[in-house]
Amino acid sequence: xxxxxxxxxxxxxxxxxxxxxxxxxxxxxxxxxxxxxxxxxxxxxxxxxxxxxxxxxxxxxxxxxxxxxxxxxxxxxxxxxxxxxxxxxxxxxxxxxxxxxxxxxxxxxxxxxxxxxxxxxxxxxxxxxxxxxxxxxxxxxxxxxxxxxxxxxxxxxxxxxxxxxxxxxxxxxxxxxxxxxxxxxxxxxxxxxxxxxxxxxxxxxxxxxxxxxx
Length: 214
Fold this sequence. Notes:
Elements: H1 8-13, H2 15-31, E1 34-36, E2 48-52, H3 59-66, E3 71-76, H4 85-91, E4 94-96, H5 103-114, E5 118-121, H6 139-147, E6 151-158, H7 165-170, E7 175-179, H8 191-209
Parallel strand pairs: 1-7, 2-5, 2-6, 3-4, 3-5
Antiparallel strand pairs: 6-7
């Protein structure tokens, strides 16, 4: 990955990013039958955290199709070895070590929020093939409490579940996506209890979206 990270404007002005966005919207809407149950509420400017359940390797593409702004994803380092590495370099994701707490990634995420970027996180930490919502890792709450950035929940569901990486992307699916209002967290909260409380509040906001009529 490149060492210097671009500003929001620099990333969104890149030709590959500008060309990819309409393609992604069309690909997800027509090929994967993506239906939005609620409109995207993310702010047009400023930092924010987007959290979502994790159903398949297609998830980042589906979410980006519904979000007008470029999402800076937190993703496992091994995904940087994919054939689309050239595209990942353009959108500048934050690569995370799966083993243990990656403080370098945490610092990079906080810088991204300070710089006014949309940070995309899958707090379950892995793909879940059933409709069960796994426990959330506390990292997203830590980022929210330290940065003061608003947290927006989202929920994905559909026929993409249980498919392999390429199968989920290249075969047509039927997908629904719901967004929720920002989660209200205590900005002055500190300590482990506050972290656990914030984590559960974020998880509950995502879980609530699963009950919306399809």
